[in-house]
Amino acid sequence: MPLAEKFNPTMVTANTMNSIAPEPVEIMNQDLYQRRWPYPACGEGMVIGSYFFRNTQGWNYSGIESPPVIYQDAAGNLYCVAYHFEWAGLSGNSPSDWKTAYSTERSHNNFAHTYYAHLFKDGSYYAIQYWFFYPYNDGNNNHEGDWEHINVFVSSQDPNAAYIIKVEYYFHHRYLFRVPQDLIFENGTHPYVYIGGDPGVGENTGGSYPEPGEWPNTWNMIDEHVEGVGPVIHYTSFYNASPNRGLVILKDRDQYDYNQNPEMSWLNAKIAWGHMNVSSPSDWHPWDGGGNAPGSPAYNPGWNRTGSCDGNFELYIFSPQ
After folding, report:
1. Dist CA 23 CA 108 (whole Å)
2. Closest CA to 280 of 268, 288, 271, 272
3. Nearest to residue 14, comparing CAs of 105, 106, 100?
4. Over 90: is that where the pLDDT of 211 sits?
5. Which of 7, 53, 139, 165 is most buried, with most CB under 10 Å away?
6. Looking at per-residue confidence, does 107 or 133 come out higher?
7. Is 211 within 8 Å of 181 (Cβ atoms)?
């Protein structure tokens, strides 16, 4: 914890009116939903519907995996079933619905802003991954639930001696790095993260950028304007917020006894963190299908990896237009 506290970032949100901020997983209410397709169209084509399955508060759902499986109801009908979380509930799943559902939280911060820090050895250095959970992304690839991260490389696991080597920022299947002389940070230890999004249209993409400005071709020839004019979330606001909120250390998913710690079982549930396959302007894109909700950090291609993460992220080369 002292190491994670020494280097945790200060965050600048994208806009003033509809900004998103990193939230604890408890904001999801830990309700589990079931989605059905007519057999044999497992995961494709027409959806019969999404249904509330159960409230999982205090329930150990570690190990749940949700590729579509075949289910037969009492009448003998066959369906394909997958499980997923919902954040805004089944009443609506669109950017306007998510913004409305999030408006109270944005105003009152009932759930303390939260970072999830995961530490591991990377060559001769130590990497601290800071994971951010956002309730939604309403940019070009609209989806409910969004996990983003940065990697902070430090010289030592001794918090008194450690210093920053570099910071990797991830956004839209791209990444770039900054060394200390090119970083915006506080006290030489707390890098700034600017959340992607265009305040002119009220969009939030969740991408993590080292500085505001125009970022051309960040996502399949789509440019992103990061103005960084929204509220600033200072790194000190993440200290001692409450149990499981504020700054939370994440171990590897096989290092927990989930019967003893069911509150952490979300990390080991291989299910979508939001409504599946919402309508999105980028539905045509082959990388992520536009509106697909992501899985937990432990099932993200960036987990325990740096750089291109085994080819899942492309090094971003800034080319001013």
Report:
1. 13
2. 288
3. 106
4. yes
5. 139
6. 133
7. no
Q: Which of 24, 195, 193 is nearest to 110 (CA)?
A: 24
Q: How many CB atoms within 10 Å of residue 251?
A: 13
Nearest to 291 by CA among 136, 153, 131, 170: 136
Please tell me the distance from the alpha carbon of residue 52 to that of residue 33, in angstroms, as a whole number.
5
Q: In terms of C-beta density within 10 A (0-12 exposed, 13-18 middle, 19 or more buried), how is residue 137 classed? A: buried
Strands 115-122 and 247-249: parallel
Looking at residue 270, the DSSP 8-state letter turns out to be: B
CB 159 within 8 A of CB 2: yes
Nearest-CA neighbor of 20 among 92, 129, 86, 95?
Answer: 95
Q: Categorize the per-residue pLDDT at 197 as very low, low, confident or very high, splitting at 50, 70 and 90.
A: confident
In this prediction, residue 72 carries a pLDDT of 86
H helix or E strand, kind and range, residue 4: helix 2-7
Residues 6+ apart with CB under 8 A from 299: 270
**Distances in whole angstroms, Cα of residue 266 to Cα of each of 131, 277, 281:** 14, 21, 29
Q: Residue 36: what pLDDT? A: 83
Q: What is the pLDDT of residue 230?
A: 86
> Residue 37 has what pLDDT?
82
Domain extents in the chain: 2-26+110-257+297-315
Reported as a single tens digit per residue, the pLDDT across 34-82 is: 888 888 877 666 677 777 777 666 677 787 776 678 888 889 988 888 8
Structure tokens of 63?
């190990």
